[in-house]
Amino acid sequence: MGTASNIKTLPYAELDRRIAAEEARMRSALDRYRECGLKWCTSSSFQTHSIPLLHLLQRFAPDTPVYFLDTGFHFPETLVFRDRMAAELGLDVRDVRSPVGKMGQLDAGGRFLFASDPDQCCYLNKTAPMAAVLPGYDIWIAGLRRDQNAHRAGLATEAPGPHGTRRYHPMLEWDSRMIWRYREQHQLPEHPLEAQGYFSVGCEPCTQRFSLEAAAEAEKSGRSGRWAGLRKTECGLHTELGPAKAAAAAEADPASAPTPSPAAAGKNAPNRP
Ligand code: SF4
């Protein structure tokens, strides 16, 4: 994220216009889902740049359940920040944990899987627990932005999702300047580790503090300070449960293509304004 000094040289009116346009698009999408009687949820990692989406949902759809993948490997500061934001924004935060205990997550050498097989670690602690939640919803709202990495740059705002859901990416066209400006407009706090140089905060073992070397590596690899030294560049939540996999599954089996209908799908009650 840029500093206040360089962002303030940008034309605020243009940022404000783009933010207002994106807000209107999101409000309209949520109104459409509501009119169709659809049920939605979101997931959040409670980073600084996650907070504008949670604030927007609090304004437009305050009953939205917010799922937090509690991997057991988060920084303590993230858990404190999650609790603070839940209280300040009045969020319905629901922790989701892997049914596989940590002693069942060791490799043959007795090490935690994040060291030797991070894809499997993410599968056990994020993908599988979130996959168990999704059948109860029609729409999964995820705060991915096109400017974050190459995988996200190619996403669509709405796309087929896993388990009969559709994925909705309302922040796709936002960039870091808009996020900064929105936080300033609404006086939203930052994750406590950001001041220590962590601009992308995930699980502690897989997160790297900012440095010039790390920035150069991130620029080359698209990892943004995560999974340093590994081939992994994207969270399994957005690959294994991402739109590409879902679209491929639907193409292979057209009968599985999602047609959100809470009545037909046996979903619970739709979200309310
Ligand atoms: S980010 Fe790292 S520690 Fe967290 S679930 Fe994935 S591999 Fe495991």
Give the spatial strand order of the biggest sheet: 3-2-1-4-6-5
CATH topology: Rossmann fold
CATH 4th-level superfamily? HUPs
Sheet with the most strands, sense and barrel status: 6 strands, mixed
User: What percentage of residues falls in helices of 4 or more residues?
Assistant: 40-55%
Estimate the mean pLDDT confidence: 84
Question: Percent of residues in beta strands?
Answer: 5-15%
Integer count of domains? 1
From the spread of the alpha carbons, the general shape counts as: globular
Q: How would you summarize what this structure contains?
A:
The chain has 273 residues and is of the alpha/beta class. The chain is built from eleven helices and six strands.
Model description:
The protein is globular, with a radius of gyration of 19 Å. About 5% of the residues have low confidence. It is an alpha/beta fold and 273 residues long. Helix 3 links the parallel strand 1 and strand 2. It has eleven helices and six strands. The chain has a single domain, classed as Rossmann fold (3-Layer(aba) Sandwich). Strands 3-2-1-4-6-5 form a six-stranded mixed sheet. Bound molecules: iron/sulfur cluster (SF4).
Topology (SSEs and partners):
Blueprint: H1 4-7, H2 12-35, E1 40-43, H3 51-60, E2 65-69, H4 76-89, E3 92-96, H5 113-116, H6 118-133, E4 139-141, H7 150-153, E5 158-160, E6 166-168, H8 176-185, H9 212-221, H10 243-252, H11 262-265
Parallel strand pairs: 1-2, 1-4, 2-3, 4-6
Antiparallel strand pairs: 5-6
The structure holds iron/sulfur cluster.
Iron/sulfur cluster binds at residues 71, 73, 114, 118, 121-122, 125-126, 202-203, 205-206.
